[in-house]
């Protein structure tokens, strides 16, 4: 019944204190899956896609190598956009108490796993 | 010395007030204590009881204070509203040395300067 | 630190004994704790003055979320002090927060973080030079900290282990349809907690959302639970991955490599993500 991709997003919220919402989207801004309550996934997908593309250009301008993530740090929380392979992205909304250490630990595995799911999508 | 401790010990200069404590109304955490405070230990529960049960029973308005009278003392608990969870100022008052109205007036005055 | 770390520190079996050792040596330092959640314990002259952890709102969070201090005022205060050592004095000096009020917030955040940290088993810890932090209190002895934490756990405990479980539980309102009468007579703070109990948030998440303490929210949740106004959200999906619970001791054992608690796609499982354009 449950979608494994949604499960991954829910697991991220379970495993990392402070994660409240997340949206998986294509780099052109279309929603693939979301685990949200307050955010509007379609809007988040569109803005996150634009942000990620700007992030790549920022990295180019700064000559700082490959972009890892781009985050908006705000007074009562953060929005963190991470690339999932070349074709997708993950936008995570957190509160200000985000467990940064746990986030750093979990996110590579989560994006790798998401990527595997999306790759199967294309090959089938 | 913390500013809370300093403010509380000033309250003890009032004749008849032998002890005072500043508690968190929800968590029961004691932020500061001065003088004889053992009688005020359960003030938090008593105030919670007054607040919730009386409201359920139909009492209207916010809790302002609870006064427990024994043959020798008043245990006065004043709720201090603030942004966030309220605080409780609990004081042990000697019945022999002062009257309730005066003690309440003094304590309310100290309560105002406590958080300033 | 001019003198090297004295002997007892390395021999400390747990955080409380470490804090006692620091107390007897009247050390000023910051203890960085790794765990789920981890945190920082700030010690000045042997007394604990502040603690921070992702598990409970910080002084900054309490001041900003509750609206006591505006974002604008906060930024301008921070601009005056890049080290954060004098933030508390500056907040009071500018009349943004009363000295007594800031002391109350500082102490409540400290005891709340201690409570939150006590619900998880630490992986490891490291004693570092003092890291500047926002605090305003005269310092708390390790004994008092410990006594207060056990008082809190006893207050919440129904059966053993239930406090950590309660902290992890995502509560949802049980009053969706009826009982408006019962909700109407609730104190405002219970109504706020109820409004945030949406089945997604843990007590910690609600505490952050409201800018209140973790323990205070748990006390309220317990009362709401006892009155039948909230209920634990039962995970509906049967195929949901068995995710390691937050702060589960199994996940913090240093011997075993950290299990990656992610679901595996089973061969033959044909469910695919929601439709998306071919790329």
Automatic annotation (TrEMBL), chain A:
Q: Which domain of life is it from?
A: Bacteria
Q: Which SMART domains match?
A: Robl_LC7
- Residues covered by the Roadblock/LAMTOR2 domain: 6-94
Q: Which Pfam families match?
A: Robl_LC7 (PF03259)
* UniProt-recorded name of the protein: Regulator of Ras-like GTPase activity (Roadblock/LC7/MglB family)
UniProtKB/TrEMBL annotation, chain B:
Mind telling me what this protein is named? Roadblock/LAMTOR2 domain-containing protein
Source organism of this protein record? Streptomyces pseudovenezuelae
Source organism phylogeny = Bacteria, Bacillati, Actinomycetota, Actinomycetes, Kitasatosporales
From TrEMBL, chain C:
Q: What is the protein's name according to its record?
A: DUF4388 domain-containing protein
Per the UniProt record, the source organism is Streptomyces pseudovenezuelae
Residue ranges for the region (Disordered) are 231-279
Listed Low complexity bias regions: 244-262
């Amino acid at each position: 019944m449950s979608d494994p991709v949604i499960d991954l997003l829910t697991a991220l919220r379970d495993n990392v204190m402070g994660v409240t919402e997340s949206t998986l989207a294509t780099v052109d801004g279309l929603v693939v899956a979301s685990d949200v309550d307050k955010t509007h996934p379609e809007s988040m997908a569109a803005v996150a896609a634009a942000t990620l593309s700007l992030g790549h250009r920022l990295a180019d301008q700064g000559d700082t190598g490959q972009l890892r993530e781009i985050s908006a740090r705000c007074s009562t929380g953060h929005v963190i956009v991470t690339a999932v392979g070349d074709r997708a992205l993950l936008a995570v909304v957190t509160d200000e108490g985000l467990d940064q250490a746990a986030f750093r630990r979990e996110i590579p595995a989560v994006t790798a796993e998401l990527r595997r799911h999306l790759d199967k999508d294309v090959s089938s | 010395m913390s500013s809370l401790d300093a403010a509380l010990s000033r309250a003890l200069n009032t004749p008849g007030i032998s002890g005072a404590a500043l508690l968190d109304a929800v968590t029961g955490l004691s932020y500061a204590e001065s003088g004889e405070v053992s009688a005020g230990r359960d003030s938090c529960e008593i105030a919670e009881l007054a607040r919730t049960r009386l409201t359920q029973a139909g009492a209207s308005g916010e809790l302002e204070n609870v006064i427990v009278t024994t043959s020798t003392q008043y245990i006065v608990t004043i709720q201090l509203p603030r942004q966030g969870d309220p605080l409780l100022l609990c004081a042990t008052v000697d019945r022999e040395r002062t009257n309730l109205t005066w003690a309440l007036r003094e304590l309310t005055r100290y309560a105002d300067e406590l958080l300033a | 630190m001019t003198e090297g770390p004295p002997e007892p520190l390395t021999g400390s079996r747990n955080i409380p004994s470490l804090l006692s050792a620091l107390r007897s040596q009247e050390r000023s330092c910051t203890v960085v704790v790794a765990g789920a959640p981890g945190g920082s314990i700030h010690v000045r002259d042997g007394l604990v003055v502040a603690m921070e952890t992702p598990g409970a709102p910080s002084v900054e969070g309490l001041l900003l979320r509750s609206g006591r201090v505006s974002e604008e005022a906060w930024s301008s205060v921070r601009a005056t002090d890049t080290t954060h050592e004098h933030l508390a004095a500056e907040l009071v000096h500018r009349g943004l927060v009363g000295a007594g009020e800031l002391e109350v917030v500082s102490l409540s955040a400290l005891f709340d973080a201690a409570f939150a940290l006590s619900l998880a088993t630490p992986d490891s810890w490291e004693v570092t030079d003092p890291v500047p932090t926002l605090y305003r209190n005269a310092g708390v002895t390790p004994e008092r900290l410990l006594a207060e934490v056990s008082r809190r756990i006893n207050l919440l405990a129904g059966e053993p282990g239930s406090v950590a479980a309660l902290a992890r539980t995502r509560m949802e309102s049980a009053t969706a349809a009826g009982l408006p009468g019962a909700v109407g007579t609730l104190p405002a703070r219970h109504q706020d907690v109820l409004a945030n109990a949406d089945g997604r948030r843990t007590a910690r998440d609600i505490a952050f959302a409201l800018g209140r303490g973790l323990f205070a929210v748990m006390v309220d949740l317990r009362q709401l639970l006892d009155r039948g106004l909230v209920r634990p959200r039962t995970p509906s999906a049967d195929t949901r991955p068995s995710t390691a619970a937050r702060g589960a001791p199994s996940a913090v054992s240093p011997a075993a490599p950290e299990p990656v608690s992610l679901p595996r796609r089973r061969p033959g499982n044909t469910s695919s993500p929601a439709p998306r354009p071919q790329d």
